[in-house]
User: Fold this.
Amino acid sequence: MALITKEEAQALLKKVLSYSKADECEVNMSGRDSANIRYARNQVSTSGAVSSTSLQIASAFGKKLGIVTLNELDDASIQNAVQRSEELAKLAPENPEYVPFVGPQQYGPPSKMYAETTAAAGPKERADAVANSLEVAKAHKLNAAGFLENSTGYTAIMNTKGLFAYETGSSLEFSITMRTEDGKGSGYVTKGYNDFSKLDTKGSSEIAAKKALGSVAAKAIEPGKYTVILEPTAVAVLLENITFSMDERSADEGRSFLSKAGGKTRFGEQLVDPRVNIYSDPWHPELPGSTFNGEGLPVQKTYWIEKGVVKNMPVSRYWAAKKGKAPLPGPSGVIMDGGSKTLAELIKGTEKGILVTRLYYIRSVDPQTLLLTGLTRDGTFYIENGEIKFPVKNFRFNESPVIMLNNLEELGIPERTVSDESNNNYLIPPLKIRDFNFTSLSDAV
Assistant:
C-alpha cells in the first residue's frame, strides 16, 4: 500500500469532519507498511508483510467524549463511525479533566525520519542481509536466531478548531543472538535505524559471534558491588526508566522519584553527575523524531537533564492548565551526550571490572527511588588490567539508574541502540560505573 500523501490525508480528514455534529471533533489517522524476516537454527523460519490503516474519531459534547477507531475508509463506514462516536459521547459521564482540543500550531521543519532506502527495501534486500548474518554463524559453527523488520508510515491529525499536522517516517530494527552448539555460550546485538543503508548485519553478527565464543565456560564469581562497563543496549533499559518517570504531575502529587516532602519537586536540583546531559531533538541527524505529539502539540528540542540538573518534566495539557503554565510534550527519542572513548578504550582503562552486554527482564522494586532489578545476559565478562580475562556467570542486579548516574566514572562514544524492554530507539553511550550492585548469580546464558 502506498503511503497517503499530505494532500490526500488533508482531503480525507476534512471529509470526516464534515460529518460531525459534535461541539468538537478531532481525527487521528495513521498508516504503516512493514515487512520482516525471522530466522532460527541458521535458517529462515518466517517472512511476512503487513499493511495497516487506522482512523480514530473523537467527538465531544461539553466535557463528554466518545472515541471510535476503524480501518475502513469508505464514506458509509466513516459516517457510521462519526455518528457512533457522538452517541458514545452523549452516553459518557463528564470527564472532570477534559481539555478542549488545540487550535492551529506552528511546527518546525520536517524531521528526517523518512528514508527512501528503507521504503525501497524489499524481500531481496532483507534476504541478503540475513544471508550475511547466517554466513557468519556457519563460519564460526554457531547457531543464529534473528529478526529483521523495516517499515514506513505516516501520521496525520485534524480537528474542528483548525488544527492540521502530517508527517512520514521509516524505521529499521535488527537483532541477532548467536549460541554455541552446546548452548553454553551466547552473544547478542541489536540495532535500529531510519536508513536501511546503515544496516551492517555481517558486522553486528561478527560481534555477537565473538561474544558467544568468548562466553563459553563462564566462571562463577561472588556477587557484590563492581565497577561495570555497560554497553549502550544495557544502558537503554535503565535510562528509559528515568525518562518514562519524569512526569510533572506525578512529581507534584508525591508519586515520583522527583517528588519531595510538602508537595515540592526536585525540579532545578542536581540529580546526577554533572557530566550527564539527556535531551530529545526531533531534528537530530542520528535519531530524528516526530515534530508533534498525539494531541498536535509541537515537539521541540528539550533538555530533560542538563549538567546533571533536572531542567524540564513533561506536562500534560490538563495539568498545565491547572498550574497556569504551558504544556510540554514528552520526549520524541532520547539522546545522552557521551565522551570520546570507544568501548575498547573504556575496557583498556579499567583495572578490575565487569563488561555487561545486555540487561533484561527489568522490573521495578521501588518507584520512589527508581530501584530496579533484572539480569545480565548474552555475554558478561571479567576485566583485569585493561583486558577481558574470562567470561563470568550472569548476575541478578538491584540498582537505581539515578544512583548509577551518580556513580559515573566515564562515558564512551554515543551510538544508536534499541531497548529490549520498550522497543524504543536511543542514542546513548556505553557507561563505566562504579559500585554497581549485583545481588546473586543466574544460571541463564
The chain is about 25% helix and 40% strand.
